[in-house]
Amino acid sequence: MNPETLEQLNAAIRDIPDFPKEGIVFKDITPLLLQPEVFKLAIRELIQTVDGQKIDKIIGIDARGFIFGAVVAHEMGVGFIPVRKIGKLPHLTESISYSLEYGEAEIEVHRDAISPGDRVLIVDDLLATGGTAAATIQLVKRLGGHLVAASFLIELTFLNGRDILGEDVTVHSLLSY
Amino acid sequence: MNPETLEQLNAAIRDIPDFPKEGIVFKDITPLLLQPEVFKLAIRELIQTVDGQKIDKIIGIDARGFIFGAVVAHEMGVGFIPVRKIGKLPHLTESISYSLEYGEAEIEVHRDAISPGDRVLIVDDLLATGGTAAATIQLVKRLGGHLVAASFLIELTFLNGRDILGEDVTVHSLLSY
């Protein structure tokens, strides 16, 4: 990414101190979404992370991941798969539980969304502790998909989320903090 | 919309009986998302619902509305505003409670997302009872936005959701059941 693009993306992310709780600085992407030219840059750069590689399907993770994942899928002309919090998908699902800081979470995907051998790209806005992304990767593997990469708009490197995604997983992030 | 497009969109929606509970037939949009050419048609037709009208911003409603709203915003080159379930947006919000069949729900939007006079289009996948859409319309009005229209992929006409959105609201839907 050229320095000018990096600066434009960076400038469109807003720091919100003490959200969702004291001591956490939340990276707010909503200013970026309000600036169509910057939003377009983000989408272009997310697509660029897998430039030249064959992709069959894009996974977006509930809920902000839908924003970026759906646009990337539409731009690339490939199918979009929502991975959702448990109980939202109506057909047969593959589900997985994973640990959060406090308690557990569970996500799922339609079983017929991924066919064995499908080349899949995960797109999400944020890589933090990596729990949700790691669970999503497990779902892809269980259904026989081939994970090409996981691409994030933002990576909070100090949380080391990248480390739990697995050594065999290619991780891209546009902005690192 | 030409009959062929209508048929293609219709064919990409899957009926799931007894979801989320017995007696309800759920309209599953995930097959449409997996077919990029049909997804493109849906986006094109959603944009067509406001053809020729000036739009400043698109609102997408948490969570499936993000999929369609974000792509429509990106294609039209205008800002995207997520309306979210309570507690997810980090900055100052305007929020509203509304009744569901059982209990209440609350949604919110960032106050700085809409400026007085902004011409806003709401995009969502489904108009059912209309509760969430009606609440979203109230949020737009409170912030001084001008609602150009609310455009849905699917309308369940037998639930009469359109009636509670207000007589002054222009409602479009691509598929009616």
Number of helices of chain A: 5
**Poorly predicted ranges of chain A:** none
CATH class of chain A: Alpha Beta
In CATH, the architecture of chain A is: 3-Layer(aba) Sandwich
Which structural class should the secondary elements of chain A be placed in?
alpha/beta
Rg estimate of chain A, integer Å: 16 Å
Strand adjacency order, main sheet of chain A: 5-6-4-3-7-8-9
- Characterize the overall form of chain A: globular
C-alpha end-to-end distance of chain A: 16 Å
Biggest sheet character of chain A: 7 strands, mixed
How many domains make up the 3D coordinates of chain A? 1
Question: What does it look like?
Answer:
2 copies of one chain form a homodimer. Chain A has 177 residues and is of the alpha/beta class. Chain A has one domain: Rossmann fold (3-Layer(aba) Sandwich), CATH 3.40.50.2020. Chain A contains 5 helices and 9 strands; from the N terminus they run H-E-E-H-H-E-H-E-E-E-E-H-E-E. In chain A, strands 5-6-4-3-7-8-9 form a 7-stranded mixed β-sheet, with helices on both faces. In chain A, a hairpin with a 4-residue loop joins strand 5 and strand 6. Chains A and B meet through helix 3, helix 4 and strand 4 of A and helix 3, helix 4 and strand 4 of B.
In short:
Two copies of one chain form a homodimer. Chain A has 177 residues and is of the alpha/beta class. Helices cover 29% and strands 33% of the residues of chain A.
